[in-house]
Write a structure and sequence with these properties.
98 residues; mainly alpha; 2 helices
């Protein structure tokens, strides 16, 4: 139960990782690098250059997809935590009114 004493010090709110602009920035970087790797395979002269460009492009797109999954999982968990906090606050308020 949260103490309602006004003299109780409150800890500062730590920002959620989903609020940080770093993860979407990394996602964008890996997506652009994946596109660049995909475009580079058309510039290759031989079969070896094509294979290397495909591998590099696939790795960058895989990194993008992993970061995308991490970001949206964090975003959904943050929304769920906010929903739970609002639900608890509503239940505490309703119990206090009676």
């Amino acid at each position: 139960m949260i103490d309602k004493d006004p003299h109780t010090p409150r800890l500062p709110r730590v920002p959620h990782p989903a609020d940080s602009p770093a993860l979407p920035t990394y996602m964008l970087i890996f997506f652009v690098l994946g596109l660049a790797g995909f475009a580079a395979h058309g510039l290759g002269d031989g079969r070896e250059a094509l294979i290397i460009a495909i591998i590099v492009s696939a790795v960058f797109f895989a990194c993008f997809l992993i970061l995308f999954a991490v970001y949206w999982t964090g975003y959904l968990l943050k929304g769920h935590a906010v929903w739970q906090a609002e639900r608890r606050a509503g239940a505490d308020g309703a119990a206090g009114d009676q």
